[in-house]
Amino acid sequence: MSGAPFQAVVIGASAGAVQALLRLLPALPGDFPLPVLIVVHVPPDRDNALVSLFREKCTLPVKEAEDKERAEPSTIYFAPSDYHLLVEQDGTLSLSSEQPVNYSRPAIDVLLATAADAWGAGLCAIVLTGANDDGAAGLKAVAGAGGVAIVEDPASAQFPTMPAAALAACPTARVMTLADLLIFLPGLVAA
């Protein structure tokens, strides 16, 4: 664990994301003090139904990220459909309609790399299930900035390609099952 107090958790997921996040997010306690920023690959022509789905199931407030808002503690933010979610140096969120990265907008790499620049060692980044390699370069950036890099165990992920690619790009990442994460995340902020 790094010596810095944590400032944020960022999560990237693709295929199988809803099932994985349904295990993790509702389990976060109401007093979990960090912002949680999430990119899930959602087709650009569809409304993002994730906010309403998770709002009903989570103790923490759940919302769609808005351009130029500050990442507030104890809040879960989902990237909106068809926009990259970025973190500015001052912790403000921004949205971008720049070109897709890894065929995706929002892209996990974009969130992870900008969050690593903003929060450095104060960041915990997690790459979950998915069927491409988005998140691999971003997770490497997080580790390079001193943050905690975690991949869902490819052996237990619904779609192992994405966590396996992230682990290949960032071999120092911790490998955890969803059950491990349920214990680890609340412990990030334990006194």
List keywords for this structure.
alpha/beta, about 190 residues, Rossmann fold
Characterization of this structure:
With 191 residues, the chain is of the alpha/beta class. The chain is 28% helix and 20% strand. The strands form 2 sheets. The protein has a 7-stranded parallel β-sheet. Strands 5-6 form a two-stranded antiparallel sheet. Strand 1 (8-13), helix 1 and strand 2 form a beta-alpha-beta unit. The chain starts with 7 loop residues before the first strand and ends with a helix. This is protein-glutamate methylesterase.
What is the arithmetic mean of pLDDT? 94
The helix/strand series, from N terminus to C terminus, equals: EHEHEEEEHEHEHEH
User: What structural class do the secondary elements suggest?
Assistant: alpha/beta
Shape annotation: globular
Query: What would you say the CATH architecture is?
Result: 3-Layer(aba) Sandwich
Report the portion of residues in β strands.
15-25%
Number of strands: 9
For the terminal residues, how far apart are their CA atoms?
A: 13 Å
Number of domains: 1
| Uncertain stretches of 5 or more adjacent residues | none
The CATH superfamily name is Methylesterase CheB, C-terminal domain
What is the helix tally?
A: 6
CATH class designation: Alpha Beta
CATH fold type: Rossmann fold
> What portion of residues is helical?
25-40%
Strand order of the largest sheet: 3-4-2-1-7-8-9
Q: State the major sheet.
A: 7 strands, parallel
Domain CheB-type methylesterase: 2-191
GO molecular function, one term: protein-glutamate methylesterase activity
InterPro entries: CheB_C, Sig_transdc_resp-reg_Me-estase
EC number: 3.1.1.61
